[in-house]
Design goal:
The structure is a homodimer of 334-residue chains.
Chain A lengths: L2 H4 L1 H11 L7 E3 L6 E3 L6 E10 L11 H18 L3 E12 L4 H17 L3 E10 L4 E10 L15 E5 L4 H11 L6 H11 L5 H9 L5 E4 L4 H12 L2 E5 L7 H6 L4 H10 L6 E5 L4 H10 L5 E8 L4 E4 L5 E3 L10
Helix pairs in contact in A: 2-4, 3-4, 3-7, 5-6, 7-11
Chain lengths: 334, 334
């Protein structure tokens, strides 16, 4: 059955039936003109939207419908995590070719819904629209953060140490593996491909850092580490230096770009879509950082450099030379 | 200059520069991982999302970029108005072909921004993504409503009178005029075309009805009057009867379908996109209704029928016969 054959109202009912029961703070969920929710007291609302476009952000031959649904929510939860916010609700806007089969929409909704359940998020509304173009999954996510715990990009100061969650370069390597057809010859490769298909938003770490007030600035790595460092530095009015030797490169990615250490480093810096978090932590806040690490032990946090009063954004290469950090990844230019 | 040539970061900066300064309750606007706002006290948050897809919801040869920007926000403000909510913030998610010229994005943002200013809405964030398909403008709007003033679809009771704002059939007639090439031979036709291009969301009336507690249920007419009556009746566990003679048909639409009164009535019932509001008002609440009308005198509210304990949804035709209400408009089936 295609979505055209099913019709808009029936498709909405079908999506609604696959979602988990709503959180208690949902007053009106799917089925009215708009959703109505009760905001947390003493907290700001945090709002973000991000779209996955077929052929640009995913290919149906490389990602299952469930992967796409997962990732469409994950990229938004990553943005909330980077603000230190607790995710609460999501809106799902689907732009669907009429010939799309309904089973694939089911899979997409299931993938999104499973990740929503992990993080206590309710899908409270959305929209379905027809298109003559590619499938687009546009998700709005809403969360809450206490004013004093909010993590901005602009809060950093010279001397703050830069920490990153998890590992780098896995998603970019996974995408190259998919393009080359060599995807699952071992567990390390499979891990890279999974990083591309189903990134795990670092919600727990973002909350832990926010609650322990362990960071002065934060940002997610949707467009790669180099872009994130550059933006935190610029917004904070600082420079930065990143130590190439310190970068926690995903093992499968290190093996994938085995030709040269330099190539590995560049890929880890500019490869997008790792959806790790970058934090700026003053050296004096070590105790708070320890508290945050106790709240969220996994994935590990790795110190990769620091903010500087010098305005440049540099990398300390393995050979001890300083070079300008390579440019980041920009969607329209790739 | 095309959006590909400009690049994603520069496009976001350009959009940001065209928007009005934010409301006071915006803590962080465009430029961080997510937007942060301060919710109103003692109010629920109201959330909605709706997309305009080129070739499906608009054609670039019939609507200017400014028209598209206006309408993309208007359809969302209409949903908030139907809940009795005060609009506060919006997120703009643009899915843009790389070859699209930046000037048209400017026009689109200006159209959206002008309507936002009229209703005191701040565009606090969004996203731009590239597509190989049509231009898509997906807007999320957020508003606030006090719990006891919220207007649901399900609140109606048998005997409640049905009122509709403004006029019906104008947008559908305007779309046919555009298709036929006869668009502006007189002011009445131009008014219909304007209804298609730039619907005015009935924010003031929705707020007036909500604040005066004059309605027990409400819904907007995005998919036509017949669909709205059917849905309010179903959600309220009632039937409904609509009086054909009472329908406030847009003058240009009446002339456009001049062949038969029956055709005019059906077009006014099933023609989508008028974005008027439908309210269910108990007969005993006449005083409250009067108060609401004083708060928002324009557009007029017209009584068009009532909810019934009889489960059918009927129309009382001009000749005195009762017939089932024709089916509404469904996007995937048109």
């Amino acid at each position: 059955v295609t979505v055209s054959e099913l019709g808009e109202h029936a498709l909405v009912s079908r999506i609604r039936a696959r979602l988990s029961p709503p959180r208690r703070d949902v007053v009106i969920g799917i089925g009215d003109d708009a959703a109505v929710v009760t905001g947390a007291r003493n907290a700001h609302a945090v709002l973000t939207v991000d779209a996955l476009v077929e052929g640009v952000h995913f290919k149906r031959r490389w990602s299952s419908p469930g992967d796409v649904g997962h990732k469409a929510l994950a990229v938004n939860l990553s943005d909330l995590a980077a603000m230190g916010a607790e995710p609460q609700w999501a809106l799902l806007s689907l732009i669907v070719p009429g010939a799309h089969v309904v089973d694939e929409i089911d899979g997409l909704v299931d993938g999104l819904s499973a990740l929503a359940a992990v993080h206590g998020v309710s899908v409270v509304g959305g929209n379905v629209a027809r298109t003559d173009g590619p499938l687009i999954v546009d998700v709005t996510a809403i969360g809450a953060v206490r004013p004093r715990r909010m993590l901005r990009r602009s809060g950093g100061r010279p001397g703050d140490e830069l920490y990153v969650t998890g590992t780098l370069g896995g998603a970019a390597a996974g995408l190259e593996m998919l393009a080359s057809g060599d995807t699952a010859s071992d567990a390390e490769r499979a891990a890279c491909v999974a990083r591309h298909r189903r990134p795990e938003p670092r919600v727990r770490t973002g909350l832990a850092m926010s609650r322990a007030r362990a960071a002065r600035a934060a940002m997610d790595l949707s467009d790669g580490l180099a872009d994130a460092v550059r933006q935190i530095a610029a917004e904070s009015g600082c420079g930065a230096i990143v130590e190439a030797d310190a970068l926690p490169i995903e093992p499968g990615a290190r093996r994938w770009w085995t030709d040269s250490a330099r190539e590995v480093t560049i890929a880890a810096l500019v490869g997008g879509e790792d959806y790790e978090l970058l934090f700026a932590v003053p050296p004096a806040w070590k105790g708070r950082l320890r508290a945050a690490r106790q709240r969220a032990a996994s994935p590990p946090l790795t110190r990769i450099g620091r903010l500087t009063s010098d305005p440049g954004v540099m990398i300390l290469a393995r050979e001890g030379r300083r070079e300008p950090l390579p440019a980041g990844f920009e969607h329209f230019r790739c």
